[in-house]
Design a protein that fits this description.
Elements lengths: L5 H13 L4 H19 L14 H12 L4 E5 L4 E8 L3 E8 L3 H5 L4 E7 L4 E8 L7 E3 L6 E2 L4 E7 L12 E5 L16 E9 L9 E3 L2 E4 L1
Antiparallel strand pairs: 1-9, 2-8, 2-10, 3-6, 3-7, 3-12, 4-5, 4-8, 9-11
Length: 220
């Protein structure tokens, strides 16, 4: 790199001044150009973390169980499809989906179909095949983007299409109502979503509003 002497620097300043640009303005333009270059060269900020603890759904599920002694946390309902319908209270992106699979299906590496249907616009916005561990709630990343819109109604379902010829393998964890009415909207509302109904069907049923299947939606 070449070093300029004092005379050379003075010559540059005189040339800049000759073009009616003051040295202070020249320096400001240089600094501005440097800042713009640095900003343009910076990578975009990382997306918010996808946190699977304390989710909106988990809060609703826990509040449902706590709201009435007639509700319990139970693994039951031997029907192929477990689903619940919800309304979004804010725009959100789904970053993970959580479910606890059946032990026999997991041992045979048999996946569930997960679907999210937009009831407001009558369109399927997500379908994916996912294997869930049976030891505890297991979380998977959707295979495509899922953007949910405030005010829209959606239905999320898990479908156990292959139950190895044993309908007992279709059972899943639910907040069971035991004959009590569907909880109030106050109980079923979180910060970002409100569960409005549920249903169970396939090789039998339907059995509407028997309970909330534990299908966790993690928002980002």
């Amino acid at each position: 790199m070449k070093t300029l002497n004092t005379n050379q620097i003075q010559t540059i300043i005189q040339k800049v001044s000759f073009r009616n640009i003051s040295i202070s303005k020249f320096l400001k333009l240089g600094i501005l150009a440097l800042v713009i270059t640095v900003i343009q060269g910076c990578p975009p900020p990382p997306p918010p973390p996808c946190i699977t603890t304390g989710t909106d759904f988990q809060g609703i599920y826990a509040a449902t169980l706590a709201s009435n002694s007639s509700y319990d946390n139970y693994t039951t309902m031997d029907l192929v499809t477990h689903e619940y319908t919800f309304t979004m209270l804010a725009n959100k992106t789904v970053c993970q989906i959580g479910y606890q699979g059946n032990a026999n299906l997991y041992a045979s590496s048999i996946a569930y179909n997960i679907e999210i249907y937009d009831n407001t616009n009558s369109v399927m916005i997500y379908t994916g095949s996912h294997l869930f561990n049976s030891a505890s709630t297991d979380y998977v990343v959707p295979s495509s983007s899922i953007n949910l819109i405030s005010g829209n109604s959606y239905t999320i379902r898990r479908i156990a299409s292959n139950y190895l010829g044993n309908i007992g393998n279709t059972i899943g964890r639910i907040a069971r109502y035991n004959g009590a009415p569907l909880p109030s909207a106050t109980v079923l509302s979180g910060s970002f979503m409100q569960i409005t109904s549920s249903n169970f069907y396939g090789t039998g049923g339907p059995v509407p509003n028997f309970g909330i299947p534990f299908i966790d939606i993690v928002f980002q």
